């Protein structure tokens, strides 16, 4: 079970007893009632709203699964407090998209030591090998797809602005690395004229893009962004300067707003990382383990992202939500 012995250390046993929790989480049975805490990074990002909605729908289909949702609010202390409360309440499992991979590690280990199975989604925690699974998009490959879309649209080269995510965040690092791998390999004709963190925020993406455009002597041909919110913020800045149609903007997430923007031409592309599939996979994986002790084949469950342009819009997970 979770690659650990069934006997907790003496302190762990005392904690479990004090909280009324089992010292070891044996399979509950295939029809057992299951309660799961879901702690997404933040509902300010449409990506996590959709992921959670799809997760809850899958839980309803499984039956007998109660989902308790706690918005992470981009706050590690908030997520830590929510998980500590869930341990006291005796949930069976936790699905977590950690705000900070290092800061959340101790409380995740505490939950596991209390017999609670944990699945991370969208991004992992660091240094906790007993997490059952990390269900996520392969962000590096997704960013490679983003870079390949740029190369296809600009075969003769381009000047590029790169809006990066949260500094130090693994997701941000992978997306930056994948885009650079493709565009750097494509040759010197692809030139990064500015790179700056926008922290995955639409407002920050708008602000950073405005500042970059002010400082550049020439209008860049391309803006790549590590998520859709920053890309949409960049589109606002570009539009405000009368540059719509002159700068190709590439997002990442496949959000409803981004898909609408791809359809209208405000964005050149977005990378769909299928958050709905991530959410459904996370909850089904966790419930199978809690009820029957079934482990996934690998602790790293990766979804392959796809670059979505106007030409393949029908492949997007949320295309049905954007209307005619």
Keywords:
Rossmann fold, 42% helix, elongated, 10 helices, four-stranded parallel β-sheet, alpha/beta, 324 residues
Describe the overall structure.
With about 325 residues, this protein is an alpha/beta fold. It has two domains: about 1-135 and about 275-295, Rossmann fold (3-Layer(aba) Sandwich); about 140-270 and about 310-320, Rossmann fold. It is about 40% helix and about 20% strand. It has ten helices and twelve strands. The strands form three sheets. Strands 2-1-3-4-5-11 form a six-stranded parallel sheet, with helices on both faces. A four-stranded parallel sheet has the order 7-6-8-9, with helices on both faces. Strands 10-12 form a two-stranded antiparallel ribbon. Helix 6 links the parallel strand 6 (about 160-165) and strand 7 (about 190-195). Helix 5 runs parallel beside helix 6 and helix 7 packs across helix 8 (about 230-240). The termini are far apart.
Helix percent reads 40-55%
Compute the number of structural domains.
Answer: 2
Architecture per CATH nomenclature, i.e. the level-2 architecture of the largest domain: 3-Layer(aba) Sandwich
Low-confidence stretches: 1-24
Shape: elongated
């Amino acid at each position: 079970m979770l690659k650990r012995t069934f006997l907790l250390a003496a302190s762990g046993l005392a904690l479990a007893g004090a909280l009324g929790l089992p010292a070891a989480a044996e399979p509950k049975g295939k029809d057992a009632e299951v309660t799961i805490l879901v702690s997404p990074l933040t509902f300010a990002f449409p990506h996590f709203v959709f992921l959670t909605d799809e997760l809850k729908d899958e839980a309803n289909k499984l039956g007998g699964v109660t989902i308790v949702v706690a918005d992470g609010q981009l706050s590690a202390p908030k997520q830590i407090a929510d998980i500590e409360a869930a341990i006291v309440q005796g949930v069976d499992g936790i699905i977590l998209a950690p705000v900070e991979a290092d800061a959340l590690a101790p409380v995740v280990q505490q939950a596991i030591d209390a017999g609670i199975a944990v699945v991370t989604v969208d991004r992992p925690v660091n240094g906790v090998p007993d997490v059952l699974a990390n269900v996520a998009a392969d962000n590096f490959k997704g960013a490679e797809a983003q870079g390949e879309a740029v190369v296809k649209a600009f075969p003769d080269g381009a000047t590029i602005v790169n809006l990066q995510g949260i500094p130090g965040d693994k997701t941000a690092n992978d997306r930056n690395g994948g885009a650079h791998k493709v565009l750097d390999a494509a040759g010197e004709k692809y030139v990064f004229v500015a790179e700056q963190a926008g922290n995955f925020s639409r407002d920050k993406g708008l602000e950073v893009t405005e500042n970059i455009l002010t400082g550049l002597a020439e209008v860049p041909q391309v803006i790549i962004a590590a998520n859709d919110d920053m890309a949409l913020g960049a589109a606002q800045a570009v539009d405000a300067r009368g540059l719509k149609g002159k700068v190709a903007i590439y997002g990442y997430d496949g959000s409803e707003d981004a898909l609408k923007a791809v359809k209208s031409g405000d964005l050149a592309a977005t990378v769909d990382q299928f958050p709905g599939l991530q959410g459904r996979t996370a909850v089904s994986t966790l419930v199978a383990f809690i009820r029957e002790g079934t482990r996934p084949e690998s602790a790293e469950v990766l979804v392959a992202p796809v670059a979505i342009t106007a030409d393949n819009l029908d492949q997007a997970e949320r295309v049905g939500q954007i209307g005619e």
